[in-house]
């Protein structure tokens, strides 16, 4: 079992520590590049195709253009783009809540991340989600991202991260419905169910087993079960 610390990060934290954003975006990109469930190392540049290729496809099998449509490939994840996305989110200030799990030593190596934010209702395109989360406040707490280091899985990091984010939602938006987007076979689905999210519907637009989960009011989340 490894020790870890859960640390909140916000706009002011990131401004003080310019190494942190770089470390977080690198860690983030490497999860989707190298986690065997994703293996999103390179991607077809044809927007209608968008097929992903793994590190082995590219470096060992020497696949350099798309095996479906022959278009060139590009990096699936780019650190600079991810850093910009994170900056845009943390600039929402009190509408954003992010945490990382770090090693409790001087390196502060990141072992996991999790974040969510209050999303404006008008930005939701799925009709069933719109109906499920409709409320007078004009926003819904959206559970956006969670992942832990592949070498540190199954040691409670994901549960701790998920607990901290759902506690924030419960505290700040008790009477407002919340939702998230995941995959029906995601290893995170059990975490979300334990935290009190229920299956809502399939994502018919993106397909491929993607689902929406929701909670009718954030006070009904159950972070204590994690
Ligand atoms: C989902 C994820 C964050 C869980 O992180 P974690 O640090 O392993 O979390 P925990 O140690 O708290 O374990 C959470 C649950 O996952 C299960 N689990 C963890 N590792 C597992 C493994 N290798 N095989 C099977 N189950 C596993 C645990 O059994 C645990 O459930 P339980 O305690 O009720 O049995 C992690 O698997 C991950 O980063 N996955 C890739 C990113 C991802 O899919 N994110 C969600 C996108 S929507
Ligand atoms: Zn293609």
Automatic annotation (TrEMBL):
UniProt domain N-acetyltransferase: residue ranges: 99-197
Coiled coil location: none
Domain of life per record: Bacteria
Pfam families assigned to the protein according to its UniProt record, in alphabetical order: Acetyltransf_1
Entries under InterPro entries matching the protein: Acyl_CoA_acyltransferase, GNAT_dom
Gene3D superfamilies listed in its UniProt record: 3.40.630.30
Gene Ontology molecular functions: acyltransferase activity, transferring groups other than amino-acyl groups
Protein name, UniProt field: N-acetyltransferase domain-containing protein
Organism: Candidatus Collierbacteria bacterium RIFOXYD1_FULL_40_9
């Amino acid at each position: 079992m490894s020790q870890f610390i859960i640390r909140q990060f916000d706009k002011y934290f990131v401004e003080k520590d310019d190494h942190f954003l770089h470390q977080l975006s690198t860690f983030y990109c490497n999860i989707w590049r190298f986690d065997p469930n994703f293996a999103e190392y390179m991607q077809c540049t044809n927007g209608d195709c968008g097929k992903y290729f793994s590190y082995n496809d590219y470096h060992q099998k020497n696949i350099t253009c798309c095996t479906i449509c022959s278009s060139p490939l590009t990096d699936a994840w780019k650190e600079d783009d991810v850093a910009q996305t994170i900056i845009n989110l943390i600039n929402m200030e009190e509408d954003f809540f992010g945490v990382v799990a770090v090693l409790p030593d001087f390196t502060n190596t990141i072992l996991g991340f999790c974040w969510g934010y209050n999303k404006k209702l008008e930005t939701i395109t799925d009709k069933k989600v719109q109906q499920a989360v409709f409320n007078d406040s004009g926003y819904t707490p959206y559970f956006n991202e969670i992942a832990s280091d592949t070498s540190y899985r199954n040691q409670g990091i994901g549960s701790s991260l998920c607990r901290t984010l759902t506690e924030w939602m419960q505290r700040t938006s008790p009477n407002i419905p919340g939702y998230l987007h995941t995959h029906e076979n995601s290893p995170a689905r059990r975490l979300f169910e334990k935290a009190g999210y229920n299956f809502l519907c399939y994502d018919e637009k993106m397909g491929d087993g993607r689902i929406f989960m929701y909670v009718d009011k954030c006070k009904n989340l159950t972070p204590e079960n994690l």
